[in-house]
Amino acid sequence: MTTITLVQGDITRRRVDAIVNAANSSLLGGSGVDGAIHRRGGPAILEDCRRLRASHYGKGLPTGKAVATTAGELDARWVIHTVGPRYSTEEDRSELLASCYRESLRIADELGARTVAFPAVSTGVYGWPMDDAARIAVRTVREARTAVEEVTFVLFDERAYEAFAAQAR
What we know:
The protein has helices at residues 32-41, 43-54, 94-111, 130-143, 158-168, and strands spanning 3-8, 18-23, 66-70, 78-83, 115-118, 150-155. With 169 residues, it is an alpha/beta fold. It has one domain (3-168): Leucine Aminopeptidase, subunit E, domain 1. It is globular. The model has no long low-confidence stretch (mean pLDDT 97).
């Protein structure tokens, strides 16, 4: 059974096997968590992402999918990039958000990662309401069939921490 822990802080400072990046489909860096991971991890992550774009993901990584690269200078072995959906009031995209967590854990299993740190995927510029994102994230990780021993949700601020804590109880 996977242990779920919550911390408030900077995901780029976590010592884990794999850090999950809330990436954009280009895989070439962006704002928020994505930008922070690329900045702190250094150029090796971007080089790996460029190789992925040149080979398997010429049109970018599809929403809900995940792929791994080196972690560069981060205190992790890998970065697992996943593309969260943009929030919509017109269409239920909850399954795509859940897929980000499932696919990231699937990739972690393929890599042999036992400890994984997740951000609150899609809650930044993609606008997903924090309480709903927390519900989907915690439920999906709890229900996942994975060899990952510990998932840490690394939450940027107190509001995010409280939303995830309410779901984890």
